[in-house]
Amino acid sequence: MATAAQREAWRLRKQRQRQDKRDKRGTTGDNKLLSRVAAMPHASDGAAPRLSYGVSEYLQAIVQDQDAPAAARVNAARTLAEMQGQIGRHQAEPERTAPSLSTLSRDQLVQELAQLRTAIGLGIVR
Question: What is the domain extent for residue 122?
């Protein structure tokens, strides 16, 4: 059976090991991502960016950052799509109920095709 002093020494050794692991890793995950976003030219004083009209620029930078975690890039892309009204609750309601393609003008067909390509690009439609 270990004495109280031995248990305390073991606890301190484990605590030091965990701290060493954290020090070796440096900043990770969200902290690393936030530090990169804060280093962007639009951020002021190196602080994390405030939400403003320029938030789409920050989200776009996260989407394009290959070093960012995949979940962060996906969430940024989804947020951008929601902000642009392509998906989600801010999405514009359909103006009409599926007319036949023969009744659409050329401009309407081009617009429908562009919307379909956008939906496929976002992975909404396969």
Answer: 98-126
